[in-house]
Fold Mannose-6-phosphate isomerase.
Amino acid sequence: MVELIQLIPEYHPRVWGGRRLQPDADQPIGEAWIVHEHNRIAAERYAGRTLAELTAELGAALLGEAVVAHTGKRFPLLIKLLDCHDWLSIQVHPNDAQAIALEGPGHFGKTEAWHVLEAAPTAQLIAGVKPGVKPEALQQAIRDGRVLELVQRYAVRAGDTIFMPAGTLHSLGPGLLIYEVQQASDITYRVWDWNRPASAGRALHIAQSLAVTDPSATGQVHPLRPMLDTDAQQLVACPYFTLDLLTSRVETLALDTRGQSFHALTVIAGRVVVESETGDMTLDRFESVIVPAANRLYQVRPLTPARVLKASAA
């Protein structure tokens, strides 16, 4: 067995960022990378080693048998928190084959999912294009800088989940705080960046965007829905990851990795203790822990009414 793994988040300034992730930062912070292969491990015994280094050493004991069979000894996911004070660029990501063709061997594509943590009353996002837009019209609009005319906007609220396959034009709007899980890739092709002065120097990627945009892709927005009579709801399942919402007011939740995939847990409300044979860890809101696949059985015990997002790769 392997002990529970907590990582040190990395904070990234963005022109569209806000003040919720690091209120005292010198610049607005747009992204907190909370689970990523280059994050350093918090435990002193690992002396600043990265998750990538530990993954290479432990292999299936950390990742899981199914994960190693699919992606090898590389941590396959990237999990972020996004604080959107302004619109992100309208952008698109490649699939696996396109990522290798455009960026070279060793690159993953980027299919992702968002879970809305907080939303202003007027918050919107962009996911795909309007129905009936012809491929040649979309391509010309990308070339001409008119893509904003053709994209599909959605109003969203806290609790909504959005699945965004590679090739889908998308953007997040002001007033959103987002949990994002994706393949371990940060390849982003900017199509349109709102002509804002703060974006000067942020290149657009027109040729790459034309190569990877799927004009039929509209994204999949799943509105907030009442909880079922269960402690866990599956929000997204795709070939790259599964995302579940765990909810408990007082009852301890029993979980099992089955040895197939690690579980990456992020508390989005309340406070919990994650209990494993290798030790326990208390987590507050927006803190995360990785439960290694070899640990199999573990428990999530709420100290207050809590909601936890669980991401896995199998």
